[in-house]
C-alpha cells in the first residue's frame, strides 16, 4: 500500500522517537516503515475510505516531529495508535456535523432557505477569490474537487507539507474573511 524501505531493526521505537526529537529525519522514515501500514489499517477501521485513510496517515507523519516534541511518550506503538484513532474520530465528528447541517437545510427546503444557502455559497466563493493563488488552488482542489493531498501536490507541484500549510492557512483566512462585517469586506475587496 505505502512505499516501504527495507526494514531496519537496529533501533527501538523509543530510540527512533529520541532521534526524531534531535532532528534526525531518517528516524521519521524508519517509523514510517514500521507503522504506516498499521495506521492505515486503523484509518480503514474507522473511516472505511481508502484515500481518506491514506491522507490521515500522511498528515499524521507530516506533523509527527512536532507531536513527539510536545508529548512525553513512554511506548510509541500504543501512543501512535491512539493518535491515529483520535484523528479518525475527529474526521467522523466533522463529517457528522456536516451531514447534520445538510440534513437540516434539506428538511426545511423552502425558497427562502434555498436563497440563503445559495447566498452563503456565494459568500464562500467570493471569500475564496480573496485568498492568495496557492491557497485558492489548494482549497478548490482538496475541498471542492475532493482531491487527496497527494493529488493536490501532484497537480500543483507543491510538497505535501506545502499543500497542508496552504490548506491550513487558507481555511484560517477564509474564516477571518467570512467573519468580517459585509461593509468592511467590500471596502477592501
Fold and architecture overview:
- This protein has 189 residues and is mostly helical.
- The protein has 2 domains: 13-90, Rna Polymerase Sigma Factor, Chain: A, CATH 1.10.1740.10; 109-187, Arc Repressor Mutant, subunit A (Orthogonal Bundle), CATH 1.10.10.10.
- Helix content is 79%, strand content 0%.
- It contains 10 helices and no strands.
- Helix 6 crosses helix 9, helix 7 packs across helix 9 and helix 8 crosses helix 9 (160-179).
- Residues 104-119 and 185-189 have low confidence and may be disordered.
Share of residues in helices: over 70%
Look at the structure and give the CATH class of the largest domain: Mainly Alpha
Within the CATH hierarchy, at the fold level, what is the topology of the largest domain?
Answer: Arc Repressor Mutant, subunit A
How many separate domains make up the residues? 2
Taken in chain order, the helices and strands follow as HHHHHHHHHH
Ranges with pLDDT <50 over ≥5 residues?
A: 104-119, 185-189
What is the general shape? elongated
* Cα end-to-end separation: 46 Å
Rounded to an integer in angstroms, the radius of gyration calculated over CA atoms is 20 Å
- Biggest β-sheet strands, sense, barrel: none
CATH superfamily of the largest domain: Winged helix-like DNA-binding domain superfamily/Winged helix DNA-binding domain
Structural class: mainly alpha
Percent strand equals under 5%
Amino acid at each position: 500500500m505505502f512505499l516501504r524501505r527495507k526494514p531496519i531493526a537496529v533501533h527501538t521505537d523509543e530510540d527512533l522517537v529520541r532521534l526524531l526529537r534531535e532532528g534526525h529525519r531518517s528516524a521519521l522514515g524508519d517509523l514510517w516503515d514500521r507503522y504506516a501500514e498499521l495506521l492505515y489499517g486503523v484509518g480503514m477501521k474507522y473511516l472505511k475510505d481508502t484515500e481518506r485513510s491514506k491522507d490521515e496517515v500522511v498528515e499524521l507523519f507530516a506533523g509527527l516531529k512536532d507531536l513527539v516534541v510536545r508529548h512525553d511518550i513512554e511506548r510509541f506503538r500504543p501512543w501512535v495508535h491512539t493518535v491515529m484513532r483520535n484523528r479518525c474520530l475527529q474526521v467522523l465528528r466533522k463529517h457528522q456535523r456536516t451531514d447534520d447541517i445538510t440534513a437540516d437545510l434539506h428538511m426545511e427546503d423552502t425558497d427562502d432557505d434555498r436563497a440563503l444557502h445559495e447566498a452563503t455559497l456565494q459568500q464562500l466563493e467570493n471569500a475564496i477569490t480573496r485568498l492568495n493563488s496557492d491557497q485558492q488552488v489548494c482549497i478548490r482542489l482538496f475541498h471542492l474537487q475532493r482531491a487527496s493531498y497527494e493529488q493536490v501536490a501532484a497537480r500543483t507541484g507543491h510538497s505535501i507539507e506545502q499543500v497542508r500549510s496552504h490548506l491550513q492557512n487558507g481555511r484560517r483566512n477564509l474564516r477571518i474573511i467570512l467573519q468580517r462585517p459585509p461593509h468592511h469586506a467590500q471596502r477592501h475587496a
